[in-house]
Design brief:
This protein has 245 residues and is an alpha/beta fold. It folds into two domains: 113 residues, Rossmann fold (3-Layer(aba) Sandwich); 116 residues, Rossmann fold. The strands form two sheets. Strands 2-1-3-4 form a four-stranded parallel β-sheet, sandwiched between helices. Strands 6-5-7-8 form a four-stranded parallel β-sheet. Helix 10 packs across helix 11. The longest helix has 16 residues. The relative contact order is 0.15. It comes from Xylanibacter brevis.
């Protein structure tokens, strides 16, 4: 299968190491992965801000760039969810839409398609797992507590393949961290307090690191932890899975 690697703009600009780790891990698993050059934003920031028409040209470009691949894989839950759920509507009657059926978050792809079961990296630390809202409720990476279904967590399943790791979860494990994209700009005080509460619950686990599948949530909590002077570090789950490979 041919895999197109999509690295969202904020990952490329702020967390390029996550993009590198994703490519590294996919290649380690002997997968045929390509990083198409001149890829751009998927259009999520514009659409979330109420300017959907400005997202359409970016959606068209994304389609043209990635339509040839069997799967499009990205280390970003929110961008993946936006493409999967919104492109069919944004592009209806304007452009052929194929990628919404092909795109997957890298955790979902490794867990459900590749079905990785071999030992991966080495990370001898206690890690608190953050379950991002888009991942829980739009991509099904873990079970949403409000639905009272049998618990599952695809991120945790993959982390169990890492040598030396101790994975824990905070109280209220699938509660929002307060980022929410534009929400953090429009409701700064509420967003900040939600982030403070969430970081405190992660710290209460005794973990040295907080990890998750979405850099945006980790970025929000890391900023709060830094301002609060909290001694906790942050790593995307793919950085941990590929650590030491």
């Amino acid at each position: 299968m041919k895999i197109g690697l999509f690295i969202p703009c904020y990952v490329d600009a702020v967390y390029p190491e996550v993009g590198v780790a994703t490519y590294k891990l996919l290649r380690h698993l002997n997968l045929d992965v390509t990083y198409p050059l001149k890829q751009t934003c998927c259009g999520q920031p514009m659409a979330n801000a109420g300017f959907e028409n400005e997202a359409v040209p970016l959606a068209k470009k994304f389609e043209d760039k990635f339509k040839e691949f069997d799967y499009v894989v990205a280390p970003s839950v929110s961008c993946t969810a936006f493409i999967k759920l919104n492109y069919p509507r944004l592009l209806k009657g304007k452009h052929e839409c194929q990628t919404s059926d092909k795109i997957m978050d890298v955790v979902e792809f490794l867990h459900d398609v590749v079905k990785v079961n071999q030992p991966l990296g080495t990370f001898p630390h206690k890690v608190s797992l953050h379950n991002s809202c888009h991942g829980v409720r739009e991509l099904g990476l873990s079970s949403p507590s409000e639905e009272h279904v049998a618990p599952f967590n695809k991120i945790k399943d993959l982390l169990q393949l890492v040598q030396g790791i101790d994975v824990v979860e905070p109280d209220r494990p699938d509660e929002c961290c307060g980022f929410g994209g534009m929400f953090s700009v429009e409701e700064t005080a509420v967003s900040t307090q939600m982030g403070i509460d969430k970081v405190e619950r992660h710290i209460a686990t005794g973990a040295k690191y907080i990890t998750g599948a979405d850099c945006s949530c980790l970025m929000h909590m890391a900023g709060i932890a830094r301002k609060q002077g909290k001694d906790i570090q942050f790593k995307h789950v793919i950085e941990i899975l590929s650590s030491g490979l």
